[in-house]
Input
Amino acid sequence: MIINKSTVAKKAANSTLSGYLIKKSFTTQAHPPRSSFKKIRRNVTYGLIFGTLGYFTYQYMPHKTRIDLSYSPTKENQSIVDQLSILKGRYYPTFYLSHHFLQSLYSGYGPDFRVSYDREYLPLSDGGRVALDWALPTKKLSFQKTLFEKLQFTYEPPADNKILFVIHGLTGNGSDSKHVKYLVKHAQENGYRVVVFNNRGYNQRLMSPVPSHGGKLEDIEEALVHIRKKYPNANIFGCGISFGGNQMLRLVAKQGEKIPFRAAAAVGSPIDLETVIDEMEGTIYERALLKKFVSETLLPSIDILESLKDTHGIDFEDVLRTRSLRDFHSKFTAKVFGHKDVKEFFEESKLTSDKIQNIKIPMLLMYAKDDPIVRISTVPVKELVSNPNIIYAETTHGCHICWLEGLKPASVTISPNFLVINC
Output
């Protein structure tokens, strides 16, 4: 048999070439050329850059940053609004905290600061006790171009110096809440003697087995009588934060023209507590509020509260297993204060139409559209501004009583204390 060497070589070459091409084909399919990776990475990068720019451009457009005001067009209201120049401006949230969840995280876990208080314990007529935390006004040194020119120092003002009375929100750290301290610090810098009212069990131990009841106003009224006796010639202004704003609104409505405040403000305040809690049910915010309230307000005084097991049938193990605010108030608050059910408890905290109309002093109400706790849908704006003494302000961003701004975030200067500073 004769073998043609050239034919064999040719077949071998063809076989090698076919194998190479097949291998190359598979390789090409499995591993795209390096230039394709670069193109994909470049497109993704451009997409992220332009997407981010587009998002922030939209969030900082004029209709997103303006502060919307609603009020009856009276001369008195127009005069107040003219003085509140900040409310005629715009609110620009910290660009990396424009989402409400990020603002709430930063407010809860971001850097803290200290405010120096002088504490005064006020015994109550039923054997309970509240705490009044006083802060003196501050001012800068008159020396310029020194290492200390930006420092603020407290000073003792005259007895008739203006006073800002502050009511904190639901969570248990009272005057140590960052939201409260931002307000206190700003008021100090504007010449106020500030007093923060700490409800029973807030930032202190209970003195009796009667905890705080947000629907009742008697403790606050006793504190105001005490302050008025202590400083009879001082002008007093009020500001309530979150649920403290609800208490402030009901207090002003209850006392009508007898209220000792010249003006007052409420920020992020629930009008109908039951509706707010129903809207918040099952969210991470409800769980966080409940946990913070119980751990900071009730547990530090659990030894005193244990007597409620015999007197009111409170099962604390069952109470501590609750996972919702409605369930907690049903098993604890409603029983302790003798309500027939939890709905009756909620009714006591509701700012009804007749109460709204009985507000007789200038009041500023401040809300954010992205508030995940007091949702804007639960706020009866038209009903509120039907009272000619109420000025309603609303921002797109701000979360729940946060309103952070600046590269180094701080609570924005549109806080409601601008009403009491300028009124």
User: Anything to note?
Assistant: The first strand starts at residue 68 and ends at 71.
